[in-house]
Amino acid sequence: MPLKIAVLLSGSGTTLQNLIDRAGAGELDAQFVCVISSRADAFGLERARTHQIPAIPIVRKDYDTLEAFNAAIWDTVRSHGAELVALAGFMSLLHIPDDYENRVVNVHPALIPAFCGKGMYGHHVHEAVIEYGVKLSGATVHFANNIYDAGPIILQDTVPVLEDDTPDTLAERVQAKERELYPKAIRLFAEGRLRVEGRRVRILDPQ
Predict the structure, then answer these.
(1) Residue 93's pLDDT band (boundaries 50, 70, 90)?
(2) One domain for residues 123 and 79
């Protein structure tokens, strides 16, 4: 059976589109049961509607507390039967309940634990990488927990940081790496090949 995935986003939905495309190409056995956005005007919702995926805005400012906002998200995720939650540029802090521990994944545009944490997203990451002068950056797919970018790491891979890089040119290479790693990590989850042992994620051999 296809893995039932809920996707959470706040923006244009390019990561969502990549996952949809990979599934359409037969590279990912997944059913996208809903797309939730923290912004009502996020273009990612339009992408979802185009592919007949339930598109649901759950807007932070509509809720008095972060707890109420999170409760609305998880009620929706559960009601659609999601087995895995994929964060795809979701810009609000998400508190993960016990029943979804190690069932929420995220992709980050750097090599965690470098250039990560609160405020480190999008071009902020690439600007910091270039300013620091490191020679390698990359992408990380990890299980999400209740601290920004702090969950156990599933997959990482590197890209070079070139002498004449700008945040835009570096972002292009990192995003290409993200498009490879994210569906690969989800595939491993679907195949039951990820085992979390403390901070480590062991990738098991195929059965």
Answers:
(1) confident
(2) no
Catalytic, out of 80, 108, 126, 142: 108
138 and 195 co-located in one domain: yes
Residue 41 lies in a domain: yes
| Residue 147 located in a structural domain | no
Query: Are 88 and 129 within one domain?
Result: no
At a CB cut-off of 8 Å and minimum separation 6, what does 170 contact?
126, 129, 130, 137, 159, 161, 162
List the structure tokens of 123: 């071009």
For this structure, is 123 an active site residue? no
Number of folded domains in the chain? 2
Task: Give the pLDDT mean for 78-83.
Answer: 98
Give SS3 for 196.
strand
For 134-186, the pLDDT digits (tens) are 999 999 999 999 999 999 999 999 999 999 999 999 999 999 999 999 999 99
Residues 65 and 126 in one domain: no
Cα 160 versus chain centre, distance: 22
pTM of the model: 0.96
* 36 φ/ψ angles, rounded to the nearest 5 degrees: -115, 135
Block residue for tokens 């989800």: 186
